[in-house]
Here is the input.
Amino acid sequence: MLAEHIDKIVSTYQYRKEGKRYSRCVSMEEIEKNDYNLNISRYISTAKPEEIIKLDEVNTKLIDLEKEITMTEKKHNKYLKELGLPSLP
Here is the structure.
């Protein structure tokens, strides 16, 4: 552990700082309810929220990319034809 990590832990404890996904003050009643289990994950969720994917935007991007691929393929096949080479399928 780096000194800055130790400082953060000590400061959090000393000043009872609460931080999302890092620290939270809990009552003795809550600890008692959890059978005095001090496992961090019982009190703080470290899970990151899932990114919300906007399917309509992704679909639009895919359609645009498909159009670009088709246009580029046609252009490429034109050059291949000029060179007397077989076209891409």
The two ends are 57 Å apart (CA to CA). Residues 3-42 form one domain. Helices lie at 3-15, 28-33, 55-82.
